[in-house]
Specification:
Protein name: Methyltransferase domain-containing protein
Shape: globular
CATH architecture of the largest domain: 3-Layer(aba) Sandwich
Keywords: Methyltransferase, S-adenosyl-L-methionine, Transferase
Organism: Leptidea sinapis
Radius of gyration: 21 Å
GO molecular function, one term: protein-arginine N-methyltransferase activity
Number of helices: 8
Bound molecules: S-adenosylmethionine
Strand order of the largest sheet: 7-6-5-8-9
Oligomer: single chain
Length: 276
Amino acid sequence: MYSIIPRLNISFLVLTAKKSVFSVLNTIELNKMQVFTQKRNPITGSTEWDVQHEDYDYHQEIARSAFADMLHDTERNKKYHRALQLAIEKMHRNGKKANVLDIGTGTGLLSIMAVKCGADSVTACEAFKPMADCCVKILQRNGVADKIKIIPKRSTDLIVGDDGDMPERANILVTEVFDTELIGEGALSTFDHAHKHLLEEDCIVVPDSAVIYAQVVECPMLQKWNKLNDLVDEDLNLILRTPESQKFTVTATGKAQAVFMWWELNMDTEVTPMLI
Ligand SMILES: C[S@@+](CC[C@H](N)C(=O)[O-])C[C@H]1O[C@@H](n2cnc3c(N)ncnc32)[C@H](O)[C@@H]1O
């Protein structure tokens, strides 16, 4: 059932990842559990958390979250691995310990990479409790459970201190809390909080920075695919009317019918392997 991710040398549930993650999940104790699910507030654009009933079928949330896809994304994983390696080496070169915080660890993949790259300590938090439980089992089966401290909490609830979740602030943050719009999963508030409360001032963050691109295009077919609708509340009262038109400084002739959006991550400050 275990296999090796080529060149990363991490034993993981890869070839049968989907099946394996779910079979682990099936063994998790479900009784009396509080389940949080994410929901997008369409007005503010922010991500909020809903507490669900204990019988809520969270397997659907796990399936939609595409954890297996992330395990299979070799390009992404290699770039995270390389950037982590550089960050940990840099801390050691500067005579410091490499204390890694992995926010939103999911399956634990990035934390396992940090251990394999020689991190001195790894703390991993995961807000989605069923996934955190799953992660504990994955770490045990990969023989690294004693090297990674899993905390089933949202990062913004972590406490640093002798009696807290982490004895001291971390000096490397690794995280992948990005969605298709980059910052739609509440990434900005997560980073902001981490810098203020969980990280040392001279920390290294993987990824280091990001750029969002948007391209206005003329394409009647695309325009039909994704029409913006007026926003109404549950009683169908109009909350926000879709603007008929917007003013821009025009630099080319044509009709603006759709916007393509994409982003890229600068994984580290030195060799800048891009993840697009
Ligand atoms: C895109 S997945 C990444 C999983 C894993 N790190 C990887 O790269 O394969 C993001 C995970 O972060 C969790 N998450 C998002 N924001 C979080 C936060 N502020 N604190 C803890 N977990 C968070 C989500 O529940 C989800 O499991």
